[in-house]
Every structure is written in C-alpha cells, then in structure tokens.
Specification:
about 40% helix; two-stranded antiparallel ribbon; alpha/beta; 10 helices; TIM Barrel; eight-stranded parallel beta sheet; about 300 residues
C-alpha cells in the first residue's frame, strides 16, 4: 500500500487555513541559531534570515520552519525561553511582513516560545519532544487552532539526537516508535488538539542508531497506518553519512533525496529539508512517476 486517506487530506493549521497534502509538502529549515549541526550561524540576524526565507520560497518551499534552539548531539548550550524568543519572534514577524501569505512553523519544545511565535504569525508548532517536555504545550496549540508536528524522540533536548536512549526491546525499534507515537497522538487529542491538525514524525536520527533509522523508513507505512499525515526529516542526517561514507553534512544532499523519495513511496507527504530546490525536484519527479500507485 502506497498511502492512506490520512496521507492525502489537508492539514489544518492556524487562522482557519489548511495545507493541501495532495502532493509532497516541503518544509524548509531556517535555523536562527549559532550552533545547529550543519548550518549553525549562517542565518543569524534579520537580513540573513529574510534572504534565506525568500530563497526557499522561490525554490518551492511550502512551509518555513524557524528554529531557535539546536538539538545537535550533547549540546550543552541550553537556551532559555527568553533567549529563544528573542531569536525566533522577530524573524517570524519580519517574514510575515515581507511575505504575508507564507506558512511558518516554529521548531520549539517550549510553550512560551510557541505562544509568542503563533502571535507573531506562525501557524504550526513543530515539537521535537512530541509534546513531552512542556505540559503546557498542547494547550497552547489547541487554543491557537494551530497545526502541530508530533515527533518521536526520547530524553532531553541535549541528548535526544544521541544514542543515549536508543535502546529498544529485542531491537523492535519500529514497534516502539509506532507505539510511542500513537500514545503521543492520543495525548494531543485528549488536550483538545483536533486530529486534522496533527502530523506525526518518526524522528529519524533521534534516539536511533543508523540501522534504527533505516528500519523505521523501510516500514514507514506502519506509521502512516496510525491515521495521521507523516513528516520525515532525513535531511543531512548522520545515518546518511554512514550509508554513503560522506562525513560532511553539507555534502549529503544526494543521500537525503534518496531517503525522502523512499519515504514518499511509503506514504510520507511532508519533508523537512535544508536543500529545498533539490528536494522539490526529486519529490515532484518521484510523485509524477508513482502515478496512481500513490493512492492505492
């Protein structure tokens, strides 16, 4: 089976809007941090961030995902809510002022930051903790009527991208990811977030060794079967470097395209990427070739 009804419907986001999931949706990454794992410091400051947002929109991004805290492995530079707000809030406001029809998500685990970002014009909250780390986050999302990405991860921000929590019973990583994501989705709905606003992310590279990430992508249809649209963020990830022998994250664009095309064939409809044009072209061509099978 290539997809389910959940993978082709619209995604409800804030302000009464929705995103059509009838084709691959590209979420371009805009890290306004000094220390992200592959592009830290490149887009600090209003002008640099606006220039990058403009370029990504021109290259075919459907969403701009703005993040103010790095999840790079063993990041000891903890970011408090005030600092993170000062990073993301003015950038989101500036993008909306320049591009009023843009769809912006905020990549944060903090409800205070999410609230400020939504007030500034964001329509989606991308929570890499899967709504685990801040009990107030689901309520903020629900009250705003925002879209939410619920990602599978374990641990805290500083170690969720490491192997510290990559222990799965009998190596049953897929069963664990599916079960834990199902629990987080149920938690989101019990807090008042409507099903149509929820997207699931299996958390490739988070609390997963390379073989775990490969297994999750190979059986991604089991995540899709939970009944929610699925986002995959394999961009420049460590497992791609392991498979290709490419140590430099910036040089992993081709491996990233391969991972995302495979995920598309298994039912993913949203893709969080650094290299927007490459992803747009690869996924659009794959989408056309898949043809009627993608709805079967």
């Amino acid at each position: 089976m290539m997809a389910t009804d959940a993978a082709t419907r619209a995604w409800r986001i804030a302000d009464g809007r929705s995103l059509d999931l009838g084709r691959p949706v590209i979420c371009g990454i805009l890290n306004v941090t000094p220390d992200s794992f592959s592009d830290g410091g490149r887009h600090l400051g209003r002008d640099a961030a606006l220039s990058r947002a403009e370029a990504m929109l021109a290259e075919g991004a459907d969403v701009i995902d703005v993040g103010g805290e790095s999840t790079r492995p063993y990041n000891d530079g903890a970011v408090d809510a005030r600092t993170e707000r000062l990073r993301v809030e003015p950038i989101i406001a500036a993008i909306m002022a320049r591009f009023p029809t843009a769809v912006i998500s905020v990549d944060t685990v903090k409800s205070e930051v999410a609230r400020a970002a939504l007030d500034a014009g964001a329509a989606i909250v991308n929570d890499v903790s899967g709504l685990r780390l801040d009990p107030a986050m689901p309520g903020v999302v629900a009250r705003a009527g925002a879209g939410v990405v619920v990602m599978h991860s374990r641990g805290e921000v500083r170690d969720m991208a490491t192997y510290a929590h990559a222990d799965y019973p009998h190596d049953a990583v897929v069963e664990a990811v599916v079960g834990e994501l199902a629990e987080r989705a149920t938690h989101a709905r019990s807090a008042g977030i409507v099903q149509e606003a929820i997207v699931l992310d299996p958390g490739v590279g988070f609390s997963k060794r390379p073989e775990h990430s490969v297994a999750v992508l190979r059986r991604l249809d089991e995540v899709v079967a939970l009944g929610y649209p699925v986002l995959v963020g394999a961009s420049r990830k460590r497992f791609i470097g392991t498979l290709t022998g490419v140590p430099d994250p910036l040089a992993r664009v081709h491996g990233t395209a391969g991972a995302h095309v495979a995920a598309l064939a298994r039912g993913a409809r949203l893709f969080r990427v650094h290299d927007v044009m490459a992803a747009r072209h690869a996924l659009d061509v794959a989408w056309a070739i898949l043809g009627d099978e993608r709805a079967g």
